[in-house]
What we know:
Elements: H1 55-58, H2 143-155, H3 160-170, H4 176-198, H5 210-225, H6 230-243, H7 248-272, H8 283-292, H9 297-304, E1 311-314, H10 321-330, E2 335-337, E3 344-347, E4 364-366, H11 374-378, E5 385-389, H12 395-403, E6 408-413, H13 416-429, E7 434-437, E8 452-458, H14 473-476, H15 481-496, E9 500-510, H16 519-528, E10 532-535, E11 543-545, E12 548-551, E13 561-568
Parallel strand pairs: 5-6, 5-8, 6-7, 8-9
Antiparallel strand pairs: 1-3, 1-4, 2-3, 9-13, 10-13, 11-12, 12-13
Helix pairs in contact: 2-3, 2-4, 2-5, 3-4, 4-5, 4-7, 5-6, 5-7, 6-7, 8-9
Amino acid sequence: MTWKACNLADSDNPWGGKGGPGRGGEQAPKRRRPGPGKPDAKPRDAGSDPARGKGPWGNKPKPAKARPEAERDAGGKGRSPWGDRPKKSRTDQPRGEGRSGEGAKGPRRPRNDAQGPRGDRPRGAREQRGGGERRPKRAPLTPRALAAIVLRRVFEGQSLADALPWALEQCEPQDRGLMQELCYGVLRHGHRLEAVAARLLAHPLKENQGDVQALILIGLYQIIHTRVPPHAAVSETVTAAARMGKSWAGGLVNGVLRNFQRERDWIEDAIAADPFVSRSFPVWLGEAVREAWPEDWERILDAANDRPPMVLRVNRARIPRGDYFNRLLGAGIPGRPLPHAPTAIVLDKPQDVGLLPGFDDGLVSVQDGGAQLAAPLLAPENGMQVLDACAAPGGKTGHLLEIAPECALTAVDQDPARLERVGENLRRLGQQARVLPGDAAAPEGDWAQTLYQRILLDAPCSASGVIRRHPDIKWLRRAEDIQALARTQARILDAVWPLLETGGRLLYATCSVLPAENQDQVAAFLGRTPDAAALPLAADWGRSAGAGRQVLPTAPGMDGFFYALLEKRPEVS
């Protein structure tokens, strides 16, 4: 299965259905993460850096020592390797000779339906053994325990957008903010936190203990990056281990976190020496950004760890931006207009969309400032046939219709679940379009028989320009994904170009900062397509990048985007 998640910078589900981040390409392999070591362990040598080797989670653990024979007897008087007492043996209660026989337990009790399914015992009651009390149910999962489960799933290859909804349903409403903060925060700073944990664990965790790994990172994140008092961070994280049914791991978590408080200075000094680990980036991706932007790479990596701003797109077909800005101020929501995007307003702090004036009526949408550059660059006009390829979740689709409400727009996406979001967004905006399932890499059906004057190709990509909104990208992407995505982009370009009318224009867009997906991709396409020509983009935003322009995530109110505008020229015989 391939990833499919167009319009990542829009406010909707970043990945769509199942699969990892990006807008196409091959499924990322699951990241296997191992489990527990020993508490209060001697710190590792400062030169042992997991980010450049296998790390604390990937090294092969030492084999467990065999338990003494006395601890393996039927009486179970010893302890398990984790310190818990084994369950008592039932060999002192011999079973009957068969399911219908009368063994040591005596004859089977006759059923009396009038008294419940087990004779005279009331329905739903439990048998009491030896007059003991009924065992209480396990306490509900805490926000930290739920966050650990979500993080373990991301470490195993699931996107945060797919893993988080279940946990939100299980979490108490007042705790959802904390749970999401822990998930996003650990994914944002997790590579650095892993390097910290590596210096505190004497032995690597086992492969099936990804949730224990997550608990350790959650505890470290609270101590380093939040205002939670350290003693509360330790106590609550240890409690989370017990709530997850892993009481044995409480001692490990407690030991690691308390050792960090004692050893914090030298550990953080050692990590600061590595430019990628200190910025919590996988080395391969950090090196790729440094090679692409040698003068800006540090600021790009730092920006990827910032909290993303909330940017609004004002529907100027319904209300001028200045008038809506005044409505925001009247509602007590401060912000500022974004200079390079005439429809954009950056809020001082994020707000629930239900508090935004006129949101339900379609006066405004949530969309990154960089993403708002696409529709004006394509410049659709009323009466034109317009194709939005890879349209889900529909942010740019709606913007195209706000500019040219009477154009004939066709929105195509191969993910049916995410395609539903396109329809939802259009209904909220009061707009209409032909919304169809389809694969832009292999056009077929009625929509593939039409010639279009404008095509928006929001291509599948690494999403390296929107990491601050989707920090799980740093965990789910692999170096080999970039070339796989580049091949997918080339197939889509070659497939949709014949659908463009002579004289028409195609806007190639990605939310990536890597040249292989951007200027190099466009240059290769122009080289093999004689009737394609790049049009200059006269803009005061971004910077020149080959035949297009690149916006870096260091720009105020904008994520990282690349745009190239191509025109179809008459073929020369």
